[in-house]
From TrEMBL:
Pfam families: F-box, LRR_At1g61320_AtMIF1. This is F-box domain-containing protein. Coiled coil: none annotated. Residues 50-98 form the F-box domain. Transmembrane segments: none annotated. It comes from Cephalotus follicularis.
Length: 516
């Protein structure tokens, strides 16, 4: 199964983006430590003859080093005496397993009857490692502070000290992920985030806060995050009134994401600057009332969630609906087209279940403003699915410019005997870019690619990727690397043969061994 062999990096997270500049930049800042591309060395030996870079001011060198991981930054200390202590002033501190142990985590050490004891030992080693690095740190300012490792409440004092350490250095981005993604780790009690550090306006420079797998309760004093722009809560235990109190102190909030949280049944959000709202896997949450004049994007996992937009604009330009059955898309899209006629970006994550035939009708409501569509398909059935049926989605968006299709590699897709009839439908005049991931060269996928080459008359680029991409939430996607080797030359030759002679689209084909 995917992810079971942890010694090989099967998956990684990437940002797809919203195609909405005002929230794309906010998302990049929020995820900078998790998703920044970092250079990797191809040799363990570096010969330095003339250190021209070393002549730059310390501030510039520290900014450069901040782009590296902690392990990579520490290695710069051997370059020369000029570099010896610069890494201790990096602006970004990212503490996770890969920074501590490298690419390969020795899961074998946790096999045996003493798994709980070994898990506690791993936690102690990680805490000691972070303590040692913070003791060496010489910087006066921290931009991003990130901790990602399973940690229990037994280490609350140390974690509190780390956060206080970052707060004292005017940290702008805190990302605390104490979740347990490793099946070999024993269960542990949750840590409680120290909101008391932010009471009575003691600190107001924090811009981005992300918490995963911990408890959150508000102190008696009023908690203010006056400068907070984004708040992301995942797997958080909340008291019924805590979330409401927390949000009341975030007067500048532009981004709110709630995932797998035990929220109250009814939530009221008063935030004049809120631009993006996401809720997923919050079964207790039944109703959201929003007072915001700037909301332009929201994501829902449950289409039955009652959403009331008070003093909010009707110009919602981005919408994502996650984990809905394919046979419910027609009803869902009909409501979207009428309620949000200004949609420019749409994400649909859907699954096919047993016995679903005629997945979509030929006629769907028209989205006259839609420019970007992401369709993520999962299969819960062994029955074949004809993805050519989803061409009606493209026809419902006559001004679509970019289309991304994410196909479950385990989905059984078939060809279509009605392909010639489908080729004659009206062309997609404005479609310029197509990305198909989970591409396994089966008949259905090949016919779909051929259909697009024949009907997208302005197509500039088609990208076929064997790696399976799964849309998660908040513009993020998990890419699962597989070992499927695509016959690149044969596919390109077939597509060129079936494409019209005037087709000038660039066709990119990548197998599962590439890295984004």
């Amino acid at each position: 199964m995917l992810g079971e062999i942890l010694d090989v990096p099967h998956s990684h997270r990437i940002v797809l983006g919203f195609n909405i500049p005002e929230i794309d930049q906010l998302n990049v800042e929020r995820l900078c430590m998790r998703l920044t591309k970092r250079p990797t060395s191809t040799s363990s030996y570096v010969q330095v003859t003339h250190d021209q870079i070393g002549k730059l001011p310390d501030e510039i060198l520290c900014s450069i080093i901040s782009l590296l991981t902690v392990r990579e930054a520490a290695t710069t200390s051997i370059l020369s005496s000029r570099w010896r202590h610069l890494w201790k002033r990096t602006l970004n501190l990212n503490f996770d397993i890969r920074n501590k142990c490298g690419e390969f985590y020795p899961k074998s050490k946790f096999v045996g009857p003493d798994r709980e004891q070994l898990s506690q030992e791993a936690m102690r080693e990680f805490v000691l490692w972070v303590d040692q690095l913070l003791h060496l740190y010489h910087g006066s300012k921290i931009e991003t502070f990130r901790v990602s490792h399973p940690l229990s409440k037994e280490y609350a004092c140390q974690i509190d000290e780390w956060i206080q350490f970052a707060v004292n250095r005017k940290v702008q981005n805190i990302d605390l992920d104490l979740s347990n993604p490793y099946p070999f780790f024993a269960k542990y009690n949750l840590y409680s985030f120290p909101c008391q550090l932010f009471t009575e306006g003691r600190y107001s420079s924090l811009k981005h806060l992300s918490l995963t797998n911990c408890n959150l309760s508000m102190p008696l004093g009023y908690c203010e995050f006056k400068s907070l722009l984004s708040l992301t809560l995942n797997k958080i235990n909340l008291l019924p009134e805590s979330l409401q109190v927390l949000l009341s102190g975030c007067i500048s909030l532009e981004w709110l994401s709630l995932g797998s949280c035990n929220c109250p049944s009814r939530l009221t959000i008063v935030s004049p600057y809120l631009k993006h709202l996401s809720t997923s896997s919050c079964p207790s949450l039944k109703e959201i009332e929003i007072f915001s004049i700037n909301l332009i994007s929201y994501e829902l996992e449950d289409e039955l969630l009652k959403l009331s937009l008070k003093h909010a604009p009707s110009k919602i330009v981005r919408f994502a609906l996650l984990h809905i059955p394919i046979n419910g898309l027609n009803y869902t899209l009909g409501g979207l087209a009428s309620d949000h006629p200004h949609l420019e970006s749409l994400v649909l994550c859907s699954h096919a279940t047993m016995g679903e035939n005629n997945l979509l009708p030929n006629q769907l409501p028209t989205f006259t403003k839609l420019k970007h569509l992401i369709l993520s398909l999962m299969s819960l059935s062994a029955e074949p699915v004809s993805i050519l049926e989803f061409t009606s989605l493209l026809e419902a968006a006559p001004f679509l410019q970019k289309f991304e299709l994410q196909v479950d590699v385990y989905m059984n897709t078939t060809g279509d005997e009605n392909f010639e009839r489908k080729k004659s439908r009206r062309p997609h005049d404005h479609l310029k870019e197509v990305v198909i991931s989970g591409f396994q060269c089966d008949a259905g996928q090949l016919w779909f690619a051929i259909y697009l080459l024949n009907n997208a008359i302005s197509l500039e680029k088609m990208e076929l990727i064997s790696a399976m991409e799964i849309y998660e939430t908040d513009g993020e996607c998990t890419t699962y690397i597989n070992n499927f080797k695509m016959p690149t030359k044969r596919i390109r030759k077939l597509l060129r043969k079936e494409a019209p002679s005037n087709c000038t689209a660039k066709i990119l084909i990548r197998d599962g061994r590439y890295s984004i």
